[in-house]
Specification:
The chain has six helices and seven strands; from the N terminus they run βαβαββαββαβαα. The chain is an alpha/beta fold. Strands 1, 2, 3, 4, 5, 6 and 7 form a seven-stranded mixed β-sheet that branches. Strand 3 and strand 4 (100-102) form a beta hairpin.
Length: 218
């Protein structure tokens, strides 16, 4: 059985995507400030958050072994070779429509606003992920973009969709893997990227970084 992959996220969708292809996942949600920095574009923002989440969880794990560890780096001469956990993965997703970067809606009114902006238009879904090797203190970060076109909707249709109850914890206020799948007219790029984790690119990075111990199909 493959070694466990630490998922620095509380997203059940990312965990389900990984487990569906055979990964053994240990979820450890990260607690980080997700406030965008002034002038920060969407790709820079999600890359920064993915790395913050990874390093927050990696530091927490390493401090259980070495209480004096700082900033996710092990002290000189220390090793986690015999530790049960080695690889940490985190991701963050936003929706970009025009000049607006849409995260998760704060409330019902903002969810309505987001869907009114998206309906009948094309938008981009940008997901960044960060993979961290605690044994070697090495990391890899990548952002993936998918072009999505949403069907036209009336306000009444938007309200009916929101009543389903799957919108409030989703970037852009819709779930492509849920009832919201019927809202999507077309997409160009990675489908799993829209769900929250571009599996193809994640596995490619794992292979490049030598994460054979967590890959279930190697």
């Amino acid at each position: 059985m493959a070694a466990q992959l630490v998922l620095a996220s509380e997203s059940p969708r990312r965990r389900e995507l990984l487990e569906r292809v055979g990964f053994s996942v240990k979820p450890m949600p990260a607690n980080v400030d997700e406030t965008p920095l002034p002038g920060e574009n969407a790709e820079t923002y999600v890359k920064r958050l993915a790395r913050l989440k990874v390093m927050s969880v990696a530091t927490r794990i390493q401090q259980t072994l070495y209480p004096d560890v700082e900033h996710g780096r092990l002290p000189r001469g220390a090793t986690v070779r015999d530790a049960p956990l080695r690889w940490v993965l985190a991701a963050d997703t936003v929706v970009v429509q025009g000049n607006d970067v849409l995260g998760k809606p704060f409330d019902h009114d903002e969810a309505v606003y987001m869907l009114q902006q998206l309906q009948g238009n094309e938008h981009y879904v940008v997901t960044a992920f960060c993979l961290y090797d605690m044994r070697k203190s090495k990391e890899g970060t990548q952002a993936v973009t998918t072009l999505v076109r949403m069907k036209q909707m009336t306000l009444n249709e938007i309200e009916k969709y929101l009543a389903v109850g799957e919108s409030m914890d989703k970037a852009g206020a819709y779930a492509i893997q849920g009832v919201g799948s019927y809202l999507i007219d077309s997409l160009v790029g990675s489908y799993t990227n829209v769900v929250g984790l571009p599996l193809c690119q994640v596995v490619e990075m794992m292979q490049e970084m030598g994460a054979d111990d967590i890959l279930p199909f190697m």
